[in-house]
Design a protein that fits this description.
CATH superfamily: Amino acid/polyamine transporter I
Structural class: mainly alpha
Number of strands: 0
Helix content: 55-70%
Strand content: under 5%
Largest sheet: none
CATH architecture: Up-down Bundle
Oligomer: single chain
Distance between the termini: 19 Å
């Protein structure tokens, strides 16, 4: 059966000689999701997925490991460039396979359906649902300064946040994308305003920026790598659009662009905001501060500035939560299209044109994770370890596909191959090793969740074979 065009061509879309969108020629024949995301939507989806609370909460830990302003700026630039290298690989893979599901599809095509299933299982049950649980818990904690909540109240608020954004995404991808565009545009404008107003109205000191280049010789490569770890965590989410490729107009062109444009915005914002932090307070004062964003705003603008940043953090977390809820269900949906997931998860709502069953399932699993892992030192570590494994697997898939399918059409080819992808893979493996040593409980839990998918792969495969027979 040949794939059919879904959703019809929109304004400005290119067609081939059959009248179909080029991205529809290679999509799954049972995929009924509509192409409703344009380049702006996809780019803002990347920005929303990346810029959450990390830019406020990680600089204090980074300052503990690096002695001077220049090194701090350098590590943020290094993290951005490493993420960009990962985006180069995902841009090639996403343009080759503009399907729902992202790395599930890449590993299925590069290695074996079993490899794709394990990665899809990990992505859905650990990465995305874990990220949703983390963000919901972070939102409830961020509200604490404004509303006094007990343990039960915080948990209830976190569950409510998951329910609200699941409902928003249930109602339509355009509804969610519009909300995301408004919130993300406001987020970026607010950060730009903070950076611009800092030297104009803030009570900072340019001397806090120095010495810029001193102290380089006192920092080892291992020390710089330790500082790089929280920076890379702050960039996670840069590959959001690969999971919704079958809903992007002209994905072979717009998917790579969304990755690069979105990351370009994030790198620029992160560097500019860190300059503002360093203008507000010396590195020595910044060390060990839990929320540098709030502390810097208070130093620059007084108590009103600190309150404004606290409110902004709440809104920023909600934006990232919405983006994550939008992306995650497409993994389960893609697996179900292949008959490798629970029955019914491949359904598309007749009126809203969303994978509504997958959205509901994701919400339920996220709530279960929130309840089960709230006693862990950090749900984030559980999730981050899974992300490191997934991005490493994506890079391996790039190498495998270059070797196994050299003649396949590649609308975009990763720049710097094979050296840059190899560098990215080594960096990810080093981070994974560090996490296994430093966070063994969360890392083991992530591996257990991954391994738990193997019996299901066997069961789903048996069901598919019985249907054929």
């Amino acid at each position: 059966m040949k794939p059919t065009a879904i959703g019809g061509p929109g304004p400005g879309r290119e067609r081939d000689d059959t009248g179909r969108d080029p991205g529809d020629l290679d999509r799954h024949p049972r995929d009924r999701l509509r192409r409703e995301l344009r380049l702006r939507d996809a780019t803002f989806l990347v920005v929303a997925s990346v810029i959450g609370s990390g830019i406020f909460l990680t600089p204090g830990a980074i300052a503990e490991r690096l002695p001077h302003a220049g090194l701090i700026l350098a590590v943020w630039m290094a993290g951005g460039l490493l993420s960009l290298v990962g985006a180069l690989a995902n841009a090639e893979l996403g343009a080759m396979f503009p399907h729902a599901g992202g790395d599930y599809v890449y590993l299925r095509e590069a290695f074996h359906p079993g490899a794709g299933f394990v990665m899809g299982w990990l992505s859905f049950f650990a990465i995305f649902t874990g990220t949703i649980a983390t963000l919901a818990a972070g939102f409830a904690d961020a509200v604490q300064p404004f509303v006094t909540l007990g343990e039960g109240g915080r948990l209830g608020l976190a569950v409510a946040a998951i329910a609200v954004f699941s409902a928003l995404n249930y109602l339509g991808v355009r509804t969610s994308a519009r909300f995301n565009n408004v919130l993300t545009g406001g987020k970026v404008l607010a950060l730009v305003a903070f950076v611009v107003l800092t030297p104009l109205l803030g009570r900072g000191d340019p001397a806090s920026l120095g010495p810029v280049f001193a102290g380089v010789s006192t920092v080892s490569l291992a020390g710089f790598g330790l500082a790089l770890s929280p920076v890379l965590f702050s960039y996670l989410g840069w590959n959001a659009t690969v999971y919704v490729a079958s809903e992007i107009h002209e994905p072979q062109r717009n998917l790579p662009r969304s990755l690069f444009l979105g990351l370009g915005v994030c790198i620029t914002v992160y560097l500019a905001v860190n300059l503002a932090y360093l203008y507000a307070m010396p590195v020595g004062v910044m060390r060990g501060v839990d929320n540098v964003g709030q502390a810097a705003a208070e130093a620059l603008f007084g108590g009103a500035g600190a309150t404004a940043v606290a409110i902004f953090i709440v809104a920023s977390i909600l934006g990232t939560l919405n983006a994550t809820v939008l992306v995650g269900p497409r993994i389960a949906y893609a697996m179900a299209l292949d008959g490798r997931f629970f029955a019914g998860v491949d359904r598309v709502h007749a009126a809203h044109h969303t994978p509504h069953v997958a959205i509901l399932l994701q919400g339920l699993v996220a709530v279960a994770l929130l309840l089960a892992l709230r006693r862990f030192p950090s749900i984030l570590d559980f999730t981050t370890f899974g992300i490191v494994l997934a991005t490493s697997a994506d890079t391996l898939a790039l190498f495998a596909l270059r070797r196994r399918q050299p003649a396949r059409h590649r609308p975009y080819r990763a720049w710097g191959y094979p050296g840059l992808p190899a560098l990215y893979l080594l960096a990810n493996l080093a981070i994974a090793a560090t996490m296994i040593r430093g966070r063994p409980t969360e890392s083991l839990a992530c591996l257990v969740v991954t391994a738990a998918g193997l019996p299901f792969y066997w069961a789903f495969g048996r069901r598919a074979r019985s249907r054929v027979a």
